[in-house]
Design a protein that fits this description.
Strands 10, 11, 13, 14, 16 and 18 form a six-stranded mixed beta sheet that branches. Strands 2-3-9-6-7 form a five-stranded mixed beta sheet, with no helix packed on it. A hairpin with a 2-residue loop joins strand 13 (130-131) and strand 14. It has two domains: 7-96, no CATH class; 100-239, Ribonuclease Inhibitor (Leucine-rich repeat, LRR (right-handed beta-alpha superhelix)). 24% of the residues are buried. The chain is 0% helix and 45% strand. It has no helices and 22 strands. It is mostly beta strands.
């Protein structure tokens, strides 16, 4: 994965060394949850985290001499960190059973997507607006695919992209509300039935109420709207 000129140091709990005059300390938050290792070349440190069974890697946290506490750096794994000052780097892990969502860092952006949902038995879902202080902007395709437990979902303001089939087959969601303008949202609700409702606030649609501002075409029928852009089941759409 990395060139041979790097020095590999496998860590069970922690280790420190000097590189180009800087002291680098690397550790795992809890060796029962996972181990960390790194390669070093000059002032670049290549980090690798390995979670143990039933745990997920959640990110790298950094602290220098001026910091009182560790601060979140990145969730990338592996990850290359460059430093010329003394730093402590800590890899952290979380119990798989308590990690409701799986997040992916968007390359070259300080933002995250949600790609999987691991909650068990939870009927009412509030999607996080942020993760480690950065906005969660996208619900990826198939995130909630065929989930029969969820009955309601709150879509926060930072979510601007809902990808294909994100909620396909979620037949027990009775209503879902979108109250802000999205950038993209095409057929995320395949197989929803007419007994399911999508609620849109008026700022989401044009004045004529013929389409949403992310280009769903709307058709009025008996006091409600439908749109083939929602998915094959054509759920009822209500505009508040």
């Amino acid at each position: 994965m990395y060139k041979n000129k790097f020095i590999l140091i496998s860590l069970v709990s922690s280790f420190s060394l000097f590189s180009c005059g800087a002291k680098i300390s690397v550790s795992t938050e809890d060796e029962k949850k996972g181990t960390v290792s790194y390669f070093i070349n000059g002032n670049k440190v290549a980090l690798q985290a390995t979670p143990k069974d039933n745990y997920l890697f959640t990110g790298w946290f950094i602290k220098n001499n001026e910091d009182k506490d560790y601060r979140f750096e990145r969730a990338s794994n592996p990850y290359i960190y460059e430093t010329k000052i003394n730093v402590s780097i800590q890899g952290r892990f979380e119990d798989y059973s308590t990690q409701t969502f799986f997040f992916n860092k968007i390359e070259d952006k300080d933002a995250y997507t949600i790609s999987n949902y691991y909650g068990i038995g939870t009927e009412n879902i509030i999607i996080p607006n942020t993760h480690f202080g950065y906005p969660v902007t996208t619900i990826q395709e198939n995130t909630f695919l065929n989930n029969k437990t969820i009955k309601s979902v709150v879509i926060p303001q930072n979510i601007v992209n809902i990808e294909d089939d994100a909620f396909t087959g979620c037949t027990n969601i009775k209503s879902l509300k979108i109250d802000h303008i999205l950038q993209s949202c095409y057929k995320p609700f395949e197989n929803w039935t007419a007994e399911q409702t999508i609620i849109l606030t008026s700022n989401c649609v044009n004045e004529e109420r013929t389409q949403t501002k992310w280009l769903w075409q709307l058709e009025k029928q008996d006091g409600y709207y439908t749109s083939t852009s929602c998915g094959g089941g054509n759920p009822h759409i209500i505009i508040e």
